[in-house]
Write a structure and sequence with these properties.
This is Alpha/beta fold hydrolase. The chain has about 425 residues and is α/β, with parallel strands linked by helices. It is about 55% helix and about 10% strand. The chain is built from 16 helices and eight strands.
């Protein structure tokens, strides 16, 4: 289990080094830095928020680690994103939890910290090692709040089951040794982790949201492996579990590095920062696509209602169409596409209303003018169509459009003039 490495390193730190890490972390923050002790039902949790930008990135440290786990990473991201680091109950300066630890209780604490910091969803969650299990549980319970997920050499609930197939005796010996060396403050967490590993699944298994995701895996080779996980067979298992986990997401990255050990955020902070940026970019694009789809659905629904109005309610049609277009905030191409579908559905009056909007909203668009001309021609208004086709040709020259495009506009103009002669 990954806690072997995490505990070994954390136990070797002196209190002075932990304090120095905190000072370093605080010193890198932007003007928006907020350090607080958050009250959670009589307990206090240490949290720091900082940074600026569109994305909100929330960090969950590994087993036995506090917020200083991210001290090398946050300076790289603070100029471009809002960040939250905190120490879980019983870690760093945070008070211990009076009840037995659980993923759900840790998630409730995190929700309280987020609310206190005034950080609104959606969140991009970053979890290291055991922290990966915590953000998985949080994301599964609050899928609507999640924009993306980044797993840093994440713990996997099936790891110990897989390692037992390699060397059950050695794994058991390592677990017993770890239990003996674990400080009292971390024994309850270690017992929870061992329970999860023995079960091979998380409690109350839930579907994770299908959001942009990155999984970073250490593939470092150890000349003299100190634990079973670091043997070639153990590392092969580790990589396989991570690969299988990443594959469940439709938009995911699996990044492997042989330059880092378990603490990728310390060994290669720039690599992790880039992964977070990529997930944030994918999440922004996914949000844009989702918003566009919702706007299209809403506009189509409104247009269906407008099309059902009586034929003599033209003024109401125009007013409601204008309102629906303003509310949609859709661009020229989307509105143009909807209008052509309406033309194909024998609804040229409604199509012309949409295309008039495009001409007004995009007065320098030759395509908008040409499209309105086609709708007007279909409505039997060749003189008005002719004016739009002429305008399309004028704009095409200004916009230096392809000659084939200009030829199409000329054909439309000729058709309008022919209709005028009939």
């Amino acid at each position: 289990m990954t806690v072997h490495t995490s505990l070994r390193r954390s136990l070797s730190r002196k209190a002075s080094l932990m304090l120095a890490s905190l000072i370093m972390l605080t010193g890198t923050a932007q003007a928006q830095l907020g350090e607080r002790m958050v009250d959670v039902v009589g307990r206090r949790l240490h949290a720091i928020s900082m940074g600026q930008g569109e994305s909100t990135v929330v960090f969950e440290a590994g087993f036995s680690m506090d917020l200083s786990s991210w001290r090398k990473l946050v300076p790289l991201l603070a100029p471009e994103a809002k960040l939250l680091v905190y120490s879980r109950a019983g870690h760093g300066q945070s008070d211990p939890m009076q009840q037995p630890p659980s993923l759900a209780r840790a998630g409730a604490d995190l929700q309280a910290v987020l609310a206190d910091a005034g950080l609104k969803p959606p969140y991009l969650l970053v979890g290291h090692s055991y922290g990966a299990l915590l953000i998985r549980d949080f994301a599964a319970r609050h899928p609507e709040q999640i924009a993306g997920l980044v797993f840093v050499d994440p713990a996997h609930e099936k790891l110990d089951l897989s390692l037992r197939q390699i060397d059950a005796a050695r794994l058991q010996a390592e677990r017993e040794d770890l239990a003996r060396r674990a400080p009292p403050a971390f024994r309850a967490d270690l017992a929870l982790i061992n329970t999860l590993m023995d079960a091979g699944q998380l409690p109350e298994p839930r579907q994770l949201p299908d959001v942009p995701t990155a999984v970073l895996s250490s593939t470092k080779r150890y000349a003299q492996p100190q634990v079973l996980l670091h043997t070639p067979a153990g590392m092969q298992t580790w990589r396989r579990l991570h690969s299988e986990f990443a594959a469940q997401f439709s938009n995911s990255l699996h990044i492997t590095t042989s330059n880092s050990g378990h603490f990728i955020q310390n060994d290669e902070p720039a690599l992790l920062a880039d992964a977070i940026r990529q997930v944030a970019k994918m999440a922004a694009e996914q949000a844009r696509v989702k918003a566009r789809q919702q706007a299209l659905q809403a506009l189509n629904s409104s247009l269906q209602a407008i099309a059902a109005l009586p034929a003599d309610a033209q003024a109401e049609r125009e007013a409601r169409t204008l309102s629906a277009l303003q509310a949609s905030a859709l661009g020229e191409a989307d509105i143009n596409e909807i209008a052509y579908r309406l033309l194909g559905a024998q609804q040229p009056t409604l199509a012309a209303s949409l295309l008039r909007w495009n001409v007004q909203a995009y007065p320098q668009s030759d395509n908008a003018a040409d499209s309105l001309g086609e709708a007007l021609l279909t409505l039997g208004q060749p003189a008005q169509a002719e004016a739009q086709f002429q305008r399309a040709l004028e704009l095409a020259a200004i916009n230096k459009r392809n000659p084939r495009v200009t030829a199409g506009y000329q054909q439309h103009l000729d058709a309008a003039r022919a209709a005028l002669k009939r």
